[in-house]
Structure prediction request, 249 residues.
Amino acid sequence: MPRKASVNPSSRTLPRLAGAVALVTGGSRGIGRSISLRLARLGAAVAICGRDEKTLSSVEAELKQIEFSVYSQVADVSRSSDVNSLVDKTQSALGPISILVNNAGIGIFGPVHQKTEQEWDQVLSTNLKSVFLVSRAVIPAMIRQNSGDIINISSLAGRNAFAGGAIYCASKWGLQGLTACMAEDLREFGIRVSSVLPGSVATDFGPHAAAKDPSKVLAPQDVAHAVAMLLTQRDLSFISEVQLRPLRK
Prediction:
């Protein structure tokens, strides 16, 4: 299956991602929801997963108002059994996955000496292990297609340290390394692996979410725009990383 529809650049009659099948993890809220809606508007069939059935069903209904081909499944992407089921059922429902957005993530913050082993495992499993598991499950189909896009939603915390961010930063620094190595492993198969590193985003995520000045943070739609930009670049180009900051400090 092609990465995107073969459309004359001057034509506005077909969506840019017509024929693509996208899987967005953590697609039931915040950034994941915005990415899912943006991909549906671009014509992709969209599958989403999350842990909360109610919010997942709500976003599925929103997506079906835009694009008929939608699939959702409750899944914990830090568990290989859930991941294998998610990928198999998505491909049965929609076809081979040509776009994977690894968006699922959590944050637990505080001084490292005050954190528990359980908190470490929870963050690293969700933010890093899940990317390995879902990507590993999706890559074989992309190799058969000789094309595909994997976009990992990272964070500027993957480049910068801050007090109280030890576990979260460790997960995102690790994600940057994983992304770069995956890109080298897969580019010979026509598969692009990129990361998007947002700064502060207006969601309920993070240690100071309630105190954020709305005029000095990104919107989830800004991250979705960056993902869309990566997916609609020319087939032979490869933007490997996008750092995304609010305009005003």
